[in-house]
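ARCHIVE CARD
CATEGORY: sequence design from structure
SOURCE FIELD: tokenized fold
FIELD CONTENT:
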């Protein structure tokens, strides 16, 4: 198959490794890390590249979108003349861990836990996923789901009630997701040293490239990947299993 890949560059190393082993021909394109903090802008950028890829002279069999819901940036993406394939993931944490089940296992009780990876530390020197250099905390998909259901003002109240100020200082850990294939580069050690210097408690979780590999190798189990056919668009589900679905394009 001839496939187009649109990906956040937080996955650049892993995606390139998967491309090197894929039986398919992949044309990759990477977006700057941090755009999920501006979900409307990211959605518009992704849609523009999806539309452009569908209009190219070469005919892609599918356009792969290596993003999760990412603060609702993945909601409302339309498949023009080419199908889209998207992981069923709330955000990049699910993708880095390799499955929805592992995400739920480690983060169900505290989905706002700050986390990092080698990609976050390389692509703009972000210490944590929530640290995007603009002085604000970006909670991502969980907060966006509350806004979708209850409206901005009520969502803010609910979120602040669930996540009181100083929660991290009360003993909640920060997490580094270490992919075995890139562990030799020392990202976990850098993260551990920085966490210690800032007096933060941390733990390391082993990541897994399986979702990235399956996306790029064309192994699209419907339990793990959403296929958006031409004339459809994505919609958020925000649960632990389906996560994202399709509906008729508007």
């Amino acid at each position: 198959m001839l496939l187009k890949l649109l990906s956040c560059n937080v996955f650049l190393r892993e995606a390139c490794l998967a491309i090197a082993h894929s039986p398919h021909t992949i044309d990759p394109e990477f977006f700057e890390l941090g755009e999920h903090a501006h979900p409307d802008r990211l959605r518009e950028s992704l849609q523009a590249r999806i539309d452009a890829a569908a209009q190219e002279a070469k005919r892609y069999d599918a356009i792969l979108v290596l993003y999760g819901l990412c603060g609702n940036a993945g909601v409302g993406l339309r498949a023009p003349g080419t199908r889209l394939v998207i992981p069923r993931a709330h955000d990049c944490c699910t993708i880095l861990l390799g499955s929805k089940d592992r995400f739920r296992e480690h983060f169900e009780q505290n989905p706002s836990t700050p986390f990092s990876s080698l990609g976050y530390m390389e692509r703009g020197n972000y210490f944590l996923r929530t640290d995007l250099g603009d002085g604000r905390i970006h909670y991502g998909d969980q907060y966006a789901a509350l806004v979708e259901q209850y409206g901005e003002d009520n969502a803010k109240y609910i979120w602040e009630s669930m996540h009181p100020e100083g929660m991290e200082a009360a003993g909640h850990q920060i997490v580094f997701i270490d992919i075995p294939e890139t562990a030799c580069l020392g990202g976990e050690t850098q993260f551990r040293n920085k966490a210690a210097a800032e007096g933060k408690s941390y733990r390391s979780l082993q990541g897994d490239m399986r979702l990235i590999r399956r996306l790029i190798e064309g192994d699209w189990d419907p339990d793990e990947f959403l296929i958006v056919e031409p004339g459809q668009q994505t919609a958020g589900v925000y649960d632990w299993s389906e996560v994202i679905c399709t509906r008729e394009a508007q």
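CARD ANNOTATION: The chain is about 35% helix and 20% strand. Confidence is low (pLDDT under 50) at residues 131-141, 166-171.
SHELF: design records, drawer C
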